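Following up on my earlier thread - several people asked me to post the actual chain instead of describing it. Fair enough. Here it is, all 224 residues.
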Amino acid sequence: MRILIAEDERDLNKILSKKLTLDGYAVDSCFDGQEALDYIESAEYDAIILDIMMPRKDGMEVLRTMRAAGNATPVLILTARDAVEDKVSGLDSGASDYLIKPFSFEELAARLRAMLRKSTGTAANTLAIADLVMDCSARTVSRGGVRISLTTKEYALLEYLLRNKNVVLSREKIEDHVWNFDYEGGTNVVDVYIRYLRRKIDEGHPVKLLHTVRGSGYVLREDK
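Reply from S.P.:
Thanks for posting it. Predicted structure:
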């Protein structure tokens, strides 16, 4: 899943970007509100982590601009302000959640997972199709009860496919959600990782789950 971090504290921004990347997210980061709006207009994000106190445009202005434009991407507000009226203002302006600094990364990660569950209509931290199961909290994947070892990027790709199971996803859509702006790989990166993933989740199983839809893209579905 692709995340934007808009935080002007560079050390915090760097730490969050590193930890979320290690957790399998594709992460873009910026340091002021105007830059955040530029990123938001240029890419489709699954969630945004937004600091309130930023130069050029503050987080509240970014949030109101997003919502006025019809952008419903989940937003987690970060702020040092802990007054009730600040929380109410943020939530009423369209924030999905609110986190007070200082905070633990574990809490931020849990709140991020909760936002993604809500936005994709998933009630639990477990994603599944047929006998393929992903535990998003433990970051484990198994099929038929047998653990599957995935790289960080393979896991991210499978998570995106599972959150959109039965939906045909174009290569461009997949690339936009699983890779960030810094990626400098080949143009066939999606096809390459689909092949990697197919070998790991489908090889040896009579029921195939990962399908190519010629001319359209890929879909995770159970064909009986």
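The first strand starts at residue 2 and ends at 6. That should answer part of your original question.
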